Amino acid sequence: MLKIEFITRTFKIDDIRAALAHVDLVEFLAFDTIYPQPETGVTDVIRGINCENEFIPCVRVEVFVEPQLRDKAIDAIRRAAVHERMIADTISLFTIVDVVEIRTTRATGTGRGTAARPVGISRM
């Protein structure tokens, strides 16, 4: 199993979803994040007012694929995530060797040092 991870603009997520569905990958994880502005003096129009942005709202996307679908998924992501002002032009690829699920109990108490306790660990 492989994990493909990349950062893109939020409005490109629908294009990425369609491109991955074309390759028969329908599930992925998307996390809201902000990315520091690479160049200065860039302004966006927010509610009709020109504002200078120091941070750009982005989405960090994680896709889990089988090794034989790796090249198709990366090509689909490259085609869908293209934008004239790219945020990060890096697509990271990780090998998933083992997955562990840790189930925890709800923390009891309100003082310092009260945390959830693991009740079971299982390999997936």
Give an account of the 3D structure.
With 124 residues, the chain is α+β, with helices and mostly antiparallel strands. The chain has helices spanning 13-22, 70-80; strands at residues 2-9, 29-36, 43-46, 49-52, 55-65, 91-95, 100-104, 118-123. A four-stranded antiparallel β-sheet has the order 2-5-1-6, with helices on one face. Strands 3-4 form a two-stranded antiparallel sheet. It has a two-stranded antiparallel ribbon with strand order 7-8. A hairpin with a 2-residue loop joins strand 3 and strand 4. Helix 1 packs antiparallel against helix 2 (70-80). It is globular, with a radius of gyration of 19 Å.
From the structure above, extract its key features.
single chain; 124 residues; alpha+beta; 2 helices
Number of helices: 2
Mean pLDDT: 76
Give helix % range: 10-25%
Order of helices and strands: EHEEEEHEEE
The total of beta strands comes to 8
> For the report, how would you describe the main beta sheet?
4 strands, antiparallel
Summing up helix and strand content along with how strands pair, one would put the structural category as alpha+beta
Distance between the termini: 12 Å
Largest beta sheet: strand ordering: 2-5-1-6
Roughly what fraction of the amino acids lie in strands? Answer: 35-45%
What Rg is obtained from the alpha carbons, in whole angstroms? 19 Å
Principal-axis shape: globular
